[in-house]
Amino acid sequence: MIMELPITMLACARIGAVHSVVFAGYSAESLHQRVMDCKPKIVITCNAVMRGKKVINLKEIVDAALSESSQNGVFVATCLTFENESAMKKEDTKWLKGRDVWWQDVVPKCSTTCDVEWVDAEDPLFLLYTSGSTGKPKGVLHTTGGYMIYTATTFKYAFDYKDTDIYWCTADCGWITGHSYVTYGPLLNGATVVLYEGVPNYPDAGRCWDIVDKYKVTIFYTAPTLVRSLMRDGDDYVTRYSRKSLRVLGSVGEPINPSAWRWFFNVVGDSRCPISDTWWQTETGGFMITPIPGAWPQKPGSATLPFFGVQPVIVDEKGNEIDGECSGYLCVKNSWPGAFRTLYGDHERYETTYFSAFPGYYFSGDGCSRDKDGYHWLTGRVDDVINVSGHRIGTAEVESALVSHPQCAEAAVVGVEHEVKGQGIYAFVTLVDGIPYSEELRKSLVLVVRNQIGAFAAPDRIHWAPSLPKTRSGKIMRRILRKIASKQLDELGDISTLADPSVVDQLIALADS
């Protein structure tokens, strides 16, 4: 996450080259899969990056991926490498003559003017690979005209953007948020953008608010995982900074539970900054359901109402639209400018994955409730729905209930086989610092779920978790939790992309406590 990343994305757009950004936390094998699929002419990287005190040798990962790709018949002619000297010097970087080129040796010598390569509105702008349920990454393809119009417009209105704003989105450009709301949306509006290379809790949990004060950030857009993590570290890290420049907050990536929403609003925003709790996906390109700051009342945990022109519908299992207050599957009825156009090289999969479940609709894969005021409440992925004795229970719903307990900092819920109920509810719970595990607390947590959702949603098992297995972008790896819960420890798969792989051994050790 250095300046040269969005600069490179925009340079590609200017000359009509299609870019595909790969998150730096991926393994060489994941990068190899993507290289094999899109067959790039050039790979651009930096030699290394710092995450806290840790140096990540990116060039080494790229070398391994390109070596494997060449053995499988895909040869990349050029690897342009930026020397990120705060992490690693040139002389410490492994080099392949003839293929590798230093950015600093060639880019500064180029002209500072470059004619625009005008392309058709429907010409591809970028590919972004997203996880598929089959394990093979899907290359989501976004086009130029509609995508740019949509990200620019949604950014402007959902954050109430003004020319005087200083905007900071903590997302990585390796994810769709870093494309739409670090690079394209803000910069098409001429916004001043803060970029941060590093982790949000280094050297301590006050790092975000230190940056907010230093650069007078007015709009701060982040993920619920980060909010919950900072909430766990206590209010002192927040309140020691003024944060008086902030005027709009934003949330992205997953449904934000009401207690985290309230902490974000009351503590971080001093009860004066509206929160744009945005629902959208890699595939949608930009915000689909989002509050417009100051335009309508907010409800903690609700993405509220659709963006202009978006027509979300909730359907039942047979694909019938449900009116009024209801729960079901979230679909979109008509097209919108930011929609992706295909899955690269696999249009059939595009149609079956997104348009065949409910013919005539784009199916989001998410469950949703709509209340009497027409507000939308996302209940998580449909594949994150647990069926307990015929009751369909969204994991996000149970997690939200657990996290509302004053001694629970974070929770992740998965389904496990149950010989009577079909599926049982298995909850991994991280406690607030300094709180010891106890049988009494376990019962108290189960009671909170019973009280908030009902006895049918009470967890069958609570597994104490000092921390949860997360990717470097902060997403909880539920696949790993399901394997631990099911005791399928020989099927854990690749855990190298986790921010801290040692978490897995800790959880296995605590399995019977």
TrEMBL record:
<dbReference type="GO" id="GO:0003987">
    <property type="term" value="F:acetate-CoA ligase activity"/>
</dbReference>
<dbReference type="InterPro" id="IPR011904">
    <property type="entry name" value="Ac_CoA_lig"/>
</dbReference>
<comment type="similarity">
    <text>Belongs to the ATP-dependent AMP-binding enzyme family.</text>
</comment>
<keyword id="KW-0436">Ligase</keyword>
<protein>
    <recommendedName>
        <fullName>Acetyl-coenzyme A synthetase</fullName>
        <ecNumber>6.2.1.1</ecNumber>
    </recommendedName>
</protein>
<dbReference type="InterPro" id="IPR045851">
    <property type="entry name" value="AMP-bd_C_sf"/>
</dbReference>
<dbReference type="Pfam" id="PF13193">
    <property type="entry name" value="AMP-binding_C"/>
</dbReference>
<comment type="pathway">
    <text>Phytoalexin biosynthesis; 3,4',5-trihydroxystilbene biosynthesis; 3,4',5-trihydroxystilbene from trans-4-coumarate: step 1/2.</text>
</comment>
<keyword id="KW-0547">Nucleotide-binding</keyword>
<dbReference type="Pfam" id="PF00501">
    <property type="entry name" value="AMP-binding"/>
</dbReference>
<keyword id="KW-0587">Phenylpropanoid metabolism</keyword>
<feature type="domain" description="AMP-dependent synthetase/ligase">
    <location>
        <begin position="2"/>
        <end position="335"/>
    </location>
</feature>
<dbReference type="GO" id="GO:0019427">
    <property type="term" value="P:acetyl-CoA biosynthetic process from acetate"/>
</dbReference>
<dbReference type="GO" id="GO:0005524">
    <property type="term" value="F:ATP binding"/>
</dbReference>
<dbReference type="InterPro" id="IPR042099">
    <property type="entry name" value="ANL_N_sf"/>
</dbReference>
<dbReference type="GO" id="GO:0016208">
    <property type="term" value="F:AMP binding"/>
</dbReference>
<feature type="domain" description="AMP-binding enzyme C-terminal">
    <location>
        <begin position="397"/>
        <end position="475"/>
    </location>
</feature>
<dbReference type="GO" id="GO:0009698">
    <property type="term" value="P:phenylpropanoid metabolic process"/>
</dbReference>
<dbReference type="InterPro" id="IPR025110">
    <property type="entry name" value="AMP-bd_C"/>
</dbReference>
<dbReference type="InterPro" id="IPR000873">
    <property type="entry name" value="AMP-dep_synth/lig_dom"/>
</dbReference>
<dbReference type="InterPro" id="IPR020845">
    <property type="entry name" value="AMP-binding_CS"/>
</dbReference>
<keyword id="KW-0067">ATP-binding</keyword>
